[in-house]
Specification:
heterodimer; A: about 375 residues; 2 domains; 4 strands; B: about 300 residues; alpha/beta; Rossmann fold; Alpha-Beta Plaits; 6-stranded mixed β-sheet; 4-stranded antiparallel β-sheet
């Protein structure tokens, strides 16, 4: 590598290091997002407040209530009577009310021995949040029938994520989004800034070919992204307990490919945008929405209307998130996700080729 | 061979004709000035010659290289200082200089003798961020950076715009000493008073060249008698003088109005006609480049 290439890299690194605010944002945003999605925003249902209506507190009822109270997902908030159910749910003092039938023990007995019987338990839930209500129903059924589960018709195994932790689902999504933001946004803005400041004019009137300058720009951003990547992986592993069962090395290499892709995308944006604001708008607004909506980060791709399902194929984040999810959680190896890798690789080559071809070494 | 040869060069942006069939030559080692107001096409001409733009028609060579076909050869041979401040404000003086040296594959030390007269003045501030320098210091650094690779030609687009009067004068002294090193310099300026520091000047307006000559030669083109007039009410004087008999033209010129006499102009008659104005005085004046410019522009 020749001397002047290294001095370009040095110059770019100085720009980045002296822009403390941007540096801080780049480092803080990933940590914030990880904590936010890992803990605060979660589709898991915790701390369900349950009230119980039990006309006869028989041994069977006591037993069931005790199981409820002991369970981490539930908070037992006392016995009540039929007339108060509505008020309790409405005021939010309870999320669910379990009503035991008067002859609960007998009905259970009949059900267990396979005799026809009327329901032994009624569940009344606050379904204003569909997700919470659905999950609570499932949990309640599981806990209340726990003792009798040997007789259950179904035996369910939740593979890969038995506790259904939402962090497992979000971490790959955050990675897919974040690297596009850091790489594409920051590279494109830094190139367009030179156009705006007029320094590009001087750079162009020099013997150095422009793409050399641009590759020099990519290197420090690539380095920062790698640091962010390591940070995210560490946070995911040790803070959120994401298993990384496919091997950290594989996930890391796949992510490096994705970083390159995002950098190329930034380069392409910089050939289109004339001002920093335009570059930001293109990278943030135009690219972020499709990534959020169509990458499978928030909504499963299978649930999208057909048109958007087709569009989602060209969103690089879709393939990356898919592959990372498989590797992190299902324990797939790089070989298992070779299709995703091949698509990402082709996209990188294509983007890089187009943007170098499009990059103008004149002012018009 | 001339350093710069321009043949009927034209460039339009949409419907605006920025440069309209401009032709002229600049000799080796010449300090050539492009004088004209904003929008005269000076920046467009610089960008064409530095190969940042491609002409619509016409040809030009810089140091013998065609600006379209050999543009890469030109780029390593010229030093260019764009009109806008074009260094990195977040880098220090020294870092900027070293970066531009690396850009051209040279070491800053190797060219120190050439830039020393200029760079010495800012060297005490070499660890300061460029964004925190004064206008004059920024301009000296920009010139040092443009010279770092010892170019044979220097393109300076309005280098003195936004710089204080003392620094402007110093800057022209520096250009004169660079000329001693055999460097051809093409410089543009909107300030007419700077034109006299050039070997030859081209007056330009609205994409055309109105005249090319030495500063003295340009001034000699002004053949009509010229007077400086003043009165306590300068505005009333302007409109009254324009109506007076035998006055070809009258326009504000600094603290006075310049009056160009036409056929049948008589000073005594003029004074009589305008005797209502307080403090009226009229004196013969020596024409300047600006007078020539105004005259050529009106034609």
């Amino acid at each position: 590598m020749d001397n002047n290439f290294l001095s370009f890299v040095k110059k770019e690194s100085l720009h980045i290091l002296r822009d403390r605010r941007t540096m801080l944002i780049v480092v803080l945003i990933p940590v914030m997002l990880m904590v936010l999605f890992g803990f605060a925003i979660s589709t898991e249902v915790n701390d369900i407040k349950v009230a119980v209506v039990a006309p006869d507190r028989t041994d069977g009822v006591r037993d069931a209530v005790e199981r409820l109270a002991r369970n981490d997902y539930f908070t037992f908030c006392g016995y009540t009577d039929n007339g108060c159910i509505d008020a309790l749910l409405r005021s939010g003092k309870a999320d669910a009310v379990v009503v035991f039938a008067a002859d609960f023990d007998r009905r259970m007995q009949q059900a267990v021995s396979g005799l026809p019987s009327s329901p032994a338990i009624q569940l009344v839930l606050d379904a204003s949040n569909v997700n919470t209500a659905g999950a609570a129903t499932a949990y309640l059924q599981g806990v209340l029938l726990g003792a009798e589960s040997q007789q259950s018709l179904f035996e369910t195994h939740m593979l890969f994520n038995p506790q259904m932790k939402s962090a497992f689902n979000f971490v790959p999504g955050i990675m897919g989004l974040l690297f596009i933001l850091i790489c594409a946004m920051m590279t494109s803005v830094s190139i367009v800034r030179e156009k705006e400041a007029g320094t590009m004019e001087v750079l162009l009137v020099s013997p150095v070919r422009p793409f050399k300058i641009i590759f020099a720009k990519m290197i420090p951003y690539f380095a920062i992204s790698c640091i962010v990547l390591i940070m995210i992986l560490l946070l995911a592993r040790y803070l959120l307990d994401v298993p990384m069962s496919g091997g950290a090395a594989g996930i890391f290499s796949l992510s490096m490919l994705y970083l390159l892709l995002s950098l190329s995308l930034g380069l392409l944006v910089s050939t289109i945008a004339r001002t920093q604001v335009a570059a930001l708008l293109i990278s943030a607004v135009v690219m972020m929405m499709p990534i959020l909506m169509l990458s499978g980060m928030l909504f499963p791709i299978e649930n999208l209307p057909k048109f958007f399902r087709v569009v989602s194929n060209i969103i690089p984040a879709r393939w990356y998130i898919d592959a990372v999810r498989k590797m992190m959680i299902q324990g797939a190896s790089v070989m298992d996700v070779w299709q995703d890798c091949a698509i990402l690789f082709s996209m990188t080559v294509l983007l890089l080729g187009v943007s170098i071809k499009k990059f103008n070494d004149k002012l018009e | 061979m001339n350093a710069i040869d321009i043949q009927r060069l034209s460039k339009s942006f949409g419907r605006v004709r920025a440069l309209d069939a401009v032709s002229f030559s600049v000799g080796k080692g010449e300090l050539f000035g492009l004088i004209g107001p904003d929008g005269a096409g000076k920046t467009t001409l610089f960008r064409l010659l530095t190969t940042l733009l491609t002409p619509d028609s016409g040809t030009a060579t810089v140091d013998g290289f065609d600006i379209v076909n050999d543009y890469l050869s030109i780029r390593s041979r010229v030093g260019y200082m764009p009109g806008r401040f074009s260094l990195y404000p977040d880098l220090t003086v020294e870092e900027n200089l070293e970066f531009f040296a690396a850009l051209f594959g040279v070491r800053a030390k190797e060219s120190y003798d050439l830039i020393a007269p200029i760079y010495k003045q800012i060297e005490p501030f070499r660890t300061r961020r460029t964004g925190k320098l004064s206008g004059g210091m920024k301009q000296k650094l920009a010139l040092s950076c443009a010279l770092i690779h010892r170019p044979g030609l220097l393109f300076l687009d309005e280098p003195t715009t936004g710089v204080d009067a003392v620094s402007r004068s110093e800057f022209w002294d520096m250009l004169a000493s660079l000329k001693q090193n055999g460097i051809t310099i093409l410089v543009s300026t909107p300030y007419m008073d700077e034109a006299s520091r050039c070997d030859r000047i081209a007056l330009c307006n609205e994409g055309r060249i109105l005249g090319i000559d030495t500063p003295d030669g340009i001034v000699r083109r002004f053949d009509a008698p010229l007077y400086a007039v003043r009165a306590s009410n300068m505005y009333a004087l302007l409109s009254a003088a324009r109506r007076a008999e035998g006055v070809a033209e009258c326009y504000p010129f600094g603290e006075v109005h310049h009056l160009v006499a036409g056929g049948g102009f008589d000073i005594r008659q003029f004074m009589d006609q305008l005797n209502e104005l307080d403090g009226l005085s009229i004196k013969p004046a020596a024409p300047t480049i600006e007078d020539v410019f105004i005259k050529l522009m009106k034609r």
